[in-house]
Here is the input.
Amino acid sequence: MNFGDILLIIIKFAGAVVVFIYGMKLMSEGLQKVAGSKMRNIMSRMTNNPFRGIVTGAAVTAAVQSSTATTVMVVSFVNSGLLTLAGAIAVIMGANIGTTVTSWLILLGMGGTEKFLYPLIVFAIASPLLLLKGDKTKSFCEFIIGLGLLLVGLQFLQYAMPDLSSNSSVMQTMHSWSDSGLGTTLLFIVAGAALAILLQSSSAVMAVTLIIAANGWIGFDIAAAIILGQNIGTTFTANNAAMMANAAGKKAARAHFVFNMIGTILTLLVFYPELNFIAYLSELLSGNTPSPDFRTLPVVIVPLAITIFHTFFNVINTVILSFFIPQFIKIVNLLVKTPPEEAEDEFRLRFISGGFTNTAELNLQAAQNEIQNFSKRILRMFKFLPNLRTAKDDEEFNKTFEHIEKYENISDRMEMEISKFLTKTAAADLSAEGSQRVSSMLRIVDNLESIGDIIFQIAMTRKNKRDSAVHFDQGLNDNLSHMSQLVQNALDIMDNNIKEDIHHIDLEAAYHAEQEINRYRDILRARHLDALKLDVYDFAIGNAYSSLYALYEKLGDYIINVSEAIDDSVKSAEVLGSKQ
Here is the structure.
């Protein structure tokens, strides 16, 4: 075989891999477009229940045909506070199980697919469905085309593989690798990881491995080592995606790497006995007389054995390691340190995450403590706003805006989780006073979440103003700063009322603070109307300015609603007490 022949083989092989990867990408993206929004909705509602997390991860990955897509989604959810680290680890474990569906699809695709392969592609391309306006219909056609290209890529890979059976020296060298011990196994694990990183597709590595094994180039043990390596290599994509994430997002990505590394180590401890068992099982399923030694496994059965090994690796490791999620959290916390400024940015329920108790009063106290924590986060979120005005450059502005956006996502999640907990508490055997307290707490968390929404709207208005190069003079800035101080005072009073015993709230101070906000809003509005009549500033400045002071006033409305909800609870308790 001369250099030209070798170069032609390399070109054919590279082209086949490109077709396969593009087909997988198109198929995955088509499915994600059809079901992606639903998948994200399911993922964003995950709880800390490990079993549900594993099932969700497996289902989502099987649906979108990409563990990388699932893991990147997980990183983004953890990064925004919509998913806890414990929940993320469970989903990632499930994603590893879901990716085994792809390996079985590849195995099936290696069979006789010519009968329906080309008609499938012709149908998808020529189908009048592509001419319809429905996005989901077009996305489904993309999935069909992607599936067809994936199968074409598999066929090309098989055709591109040279027949080395006539070259006894080469085949003998390759077969000798199987008798080289642990060192060779580790070498091919590294090779598998490198291939997965290079190709950015564990599915492509699986396809190549199955085909070269089916051609007798490598034995079952070497193929299994490559599969172990590609499981490690595929984690690098998510880790790259997490480079710009916060500490929580980085921890989720590292958890994927740690999980596959530990799984690989555990597998290596029983590597050869496991290979013997899978070889025995593969021959049994193929209708052959089983042999206890994987070295005698017929070449034609090796692809099946590899696929079973891949499935065993992911399923068994998930079953075992799912009991050690707290330990995984400790490991990734050691690998990724959370900067002090990010410590408060992490979403975590401190008082009700431990679960639901049978004692109603304990549940109410836990919810009260969590509401106090919620209020603290809202105050911290509000204190970011002045930094948007004083930011020296775009980098500082964008960093502050991202903090506010993240806090808004956290406030949405906190409202949902606390409300869910309170609703469950209300369904228990509560007294009339307890039921009234639940009703009051539900109103409080609803208004706290609304405060978070308005703060984010103020941030968005500031961002739009900056993007449009709209500038306020010193007078307008001073007016808004004073309005911000009035709102800050109202928030401090609200926070104190939440912290105090319900019988000692200062409702008078809360009303006074809200009236001061309304009074100053009226002054600003009157001045603004006069300025518009006199053309003191243009429409863009006037629109941004009036939007901001109106949003600050709206904050005052939601803030007073919180203190009123506490007061209503007090009055109801007094009425109920007088009736007893």
